Amino acid sequence: MQCPNCKLTFDFDDDDLLIELEGCTCDCPHCGSLLIIKHTHCLDFHQYIHSQDNRWPANGQGTGFIEIVG
What we know:
Layout: H1 17-20, E1 25-27, E2 34-38, E3 41-44, H2 45-52
Antiparallel strand pairs: 1-2, 2-3
């Protein structure tokens, strides 16, 4: 996977897992950017959500998150 922001790459342990991760989010292990997995690629979360609904700020400013640990 390549982070769209810092352009550095990172791997998941199992490439087949990518299909199961569709729509999941993760942080880039290099720059900490919030990413979303779509079609086996990492996209910037805020830019992706903004492209789906322009009420969401493209830079994520003023947004927050809830982390669910299972």
